[in-house]
Amino acid sequence: MQDVGTRRKRKALQAAAEFYCKNRRRKLIAGKCLEDYMNANALERKRSACWRCFQGKKTRQEFSEG
């Protein structure tokens, strides 16, 4: 079993992980992807590249599973 500090560090590292965003056609960090994905969907910004993005949804699910 992991302590809380170790889990927090792992989450922070995951949020800083860089990947290639297909919709934006550039590299992003996971934390920025999560933020933009949630804002686009919560505020229904349909013109955003993040609107209903399957890659953003997958990134969010992987992040929450830890």
Jot down its keywords.
66 residues; alpha+beta; two-stranded antiparallel sheet
Brief sketch in words of this structure:
By secondary structure, the chain is an alpha+beta fold. It is 56% helix and 12% strand. The chain contains 3 helices and 2 strands.
Structural class based on helices, strands and sheet pairing: alpha+beta
Mean pLDDT figure: 79
Helix fraction, binned, reads 55-70%
The largest β sheet comes out as:
2 strands, antiparallel
Number of strands: 2
- Rg result: 13 Å
Q: Identify the overall geometry.
A: globular
**Percent in strands:** 5-15%
* End-to-end CA span: 14 Å
Flag low-confidence runs. none
Q: Report the order of strands and helices.
A: HEEHH
How many individual helices?
Answer: 3
- Adjacency order of strands in the biggest sheet: 1-2
Q: Give the count of structural domains.
A: 1
Structure notes:
There is one protein chain. By secondary structure, the protein is α+β, with helices and mostly antiparallel strands. It has one domain. Helix content is 56%, strand content 12%. It contains 3 helices and 2 strands. It has a two-stranded antiparallel sheet. α2 crosses α3 (54-65). It is globular, with a radius of gyration of 13 Å. The model has no long low-confidence stretch (mean pLDDT 79).
Give the helix/strand layout.
Layout: H1 4-15, E1 18-21, E2 26-29, H2 30-42, H3 54-65
Antiparallel strand pairs: 1-2
Helix pairs in contact: 2-3
